[in-house]
Amino acid sequence: MTPRSIAVVGAAETTQMGKIPDVSVIGLHADAALNALADCGLKASDIDGVATAGESPVALAQYLGITPTWADGTAVGGCSFMLHVRHAAAAINEGLCTTVLITHGESGRSRIGGGRIPQGPASLFGQFEAPFGPVGPPTLFTVPVLRYLKTYGLTEEDLAWPAVIQREWAAKNPRASYRDPITVDDVLSSPMIAWPFRKLMCCLVTDGGGALVLTSAERARDFPRPPVYILGTGESVETPMVSQMEDFTSSKAFRVSGQKAFREAGISHGDVDHLMIYDAFSHLPLYGLEDLGFCKPGEAAAFIRERNTAIGGKLPMNTNGGGLSYMHSGMYGMYALQESVRQMRGVAPAQVPGAKISVAHGVGGMFAASGTIIFTNEA
Amino acid sequence: MDRILPEPTPETQHFWDGCAAGELRLQRCTACSHVYFPPRPFCPACSSRAVEIFRASGRARLFSYVINHRPRPDMGDKPYAIAVVQLEEGPRMMTNITGCPQTPEALVLDMPVEVTFQSFGKISLPLFQPAGGAAQ
After folding, report:
1. Side by side, which strands form the sheet with A274-277?
2. DSSP A181-200
3. What is the ipTM of this complex?
4. How far is residue A91's CA from residue A72's CA, in Å, rounded to a whole number?
5. B84 vs chain A: nearest CA distance in angstroms?
6. Chain A residue numbers touching B80 (CB-CB < 8 A)
């Protein structure tokens, strides 16, 4: 896409976040959508493009009262919303629609009205992974990590630091689920989930949602909030089975998506003021920093430990506290995008002073997919 | 609780038939010689449909793993390793490591392992044990 041709004009999360036992999945989508529409002064009838994952775009459009000329139901896991932003930008530029609503809602904790369809026993996952005992993402997403640690001579402690530093960011966010400081010892003495992963290296399981409204940069100037422009976009997919990941020390989908976005944006890593890397588990910031090219292979752990991504560091990362401390409903990509937009609007609770370029990088499935969106607040 | 088992499809039947017969079967492209897994009737490296099935050596090394502490009733009540092995022929596969303690001390990356089959009625699962037989 052409850099700065499309902008986010509306952005909001659900009214409540954390534990919301009185709202269903589609209700969370709708609550986030209504908040995002109010944020940009539009009604549902002003929307002509819809995209969502975890819920059908058909159900979303009908529920909200939208008659779209463009719909996207791309569902590749938690980074689906990054892909929706990318697809929406192309659709608006191609004239397929003018104003796109992207929503996420998930009752991850309360499990009200919805839920994912598990892969059956005849799927490739059902035949070649499920029989060997995985119990959800904590036992699958984590499988490559011992190989990563051995390759670079790292330890459990290197998996603890991302959680410790992100908790410092969460302390500045009133909506974060966990805000009390933690130490490396706290992380390494938390309950064992799947060696070498302990509880505090794993994301939260909460309820919530978020929504975005996108339109052309030309129209974006007429909205109440300052536009947040899309500077670069990338996406890729690799494998539905973590065991078949090409390289256990690096995600091919991350590398392809990140390079595409950086090239499109025409920026270098030194231009980035703020970074979000989807952290379902504490190894993901390590893989992300390396695969996006911010660190050389094997050097991300030291980069984090030396406080480069912490408050006051040169590359503030996961400034909402991340999936480890802020919230994680199941498909966290939307919350990474929301924090990037807040930072570009200058209204984040832990605002990075003067930030002009923000990168939001997402993962889907267990290293199955990836999407990268680069934002700027400069026209 | 009964073990969660695979349901073979026409494209994978030969693999599960092999396991039931005590053979680990892989596929090889006769056009480009690429050896691959999981099963499919064409080569993922060059898209050729000219592929053959062959019996693999069963030799592998322990490539990576986690030791699961979350409950899964069909896997018993003790922590167990969910492992990936790298086969001598190249492909990697998820499996369990049997015949040794399920501890970080006993499960050393790159240790040689060999295939063994555990029967659950019509299905046999390919598991791996330390090479040279079970080392207790």
Report:
1. A70-72, A49-52, A99-107, A207-216, A6-13, A228-237, A369-376, A357-364, A274-277
2. ---HHHHHTSPEEEETEEGG
3. 0.95
4. 10
5. 6
6. 133
How many domains would you assign to chain B?
1
> Is residue B3 assigned to a domain?
no
Q: Which domain holds residue B80?
A: 13-130
Q: What is the distance in angstroms between the CA of the first residue and the CA of the last residue of chain B?
A: 27
- The verdict on residue B108 lying in a domain is yes
Q: What average pLDDT does this structure show over A134-161?
A: 97
Say how far apart CA A301 and CA A157 lie, in whole Å: 9
User: Do you find a cis peptide bond into A134, omega within 30 degrees of 0?
Assistant: no
Q: How many CB pairs below 8 A link A and B?
A: 106
End-to-end CA distance of chain A: 15
Per-residue pLDDT tens over the stretch A257-295:
999 999 999 999 999 999 999 999 999 999 999 999 999
For residue range B6-38, list pLDDT tens digits in order: 999 999 999 999 999 999 999 999 999 999 999
Classify residue A116 by its DSSP letter.
P
Q: Which residues of chain A have a CB within 8 Å of the CB of B67?
A: 194-195
Helices (H) and strands (E) in chain A — how many of each? Answer: 13, 11
Residue A245 tokens read as 């990941």
Residue with tokens 């019996």: B55
List the structure tokens of A342: 């807040």
Which residues in A lie closer than 8 A to residue B5 (C-beta atoms)?
A: 121, 131
> Are A53 and A371 in contact, with CB atoms under 8 Å apart?
no
At A113 the pLDDT is 86
| CA pair distance A159, A170, nearest whole angstrom | 18
3-state secondary structure of B5: coil
| Beta carbons of B92 and A244 less than 8 Å apart | yes
Q: Is residue B45 part of a domain?
A: yes
Shortest CA gap B135–chain A (Å): 21
Under 8 Å between Cβ of A86 and A1 = yes
Angle at A193 between CA A188 and CA A195, to 5 degrees: 70
d(CA B134, CA A195): 23
**What is the distance, to the nearest Å, from the Cα of residue B86 to the centroid of all Cα atoms in its chain?**
9
Rounded to 5 degrees, what are φ and ψ at A200? Answer: -75, 0
Contacts 24+ apart (CB under 8 A), B28-37: B28/B52, B28/B54, B35/B89, B35/B90, B35/B91, B36/B91, B37/B87, B37/B91, B37/B92, B37/B93
What domains are there in chain A, each with its CATH number? 6-113+204-376 (3.40.47.10)
Residue of B nearest to A144 (CA): B64
Decide the pairing of beta strands A369-376 and B51-55.
unpaired
Q: Does some domain include residue B40?
A: yes
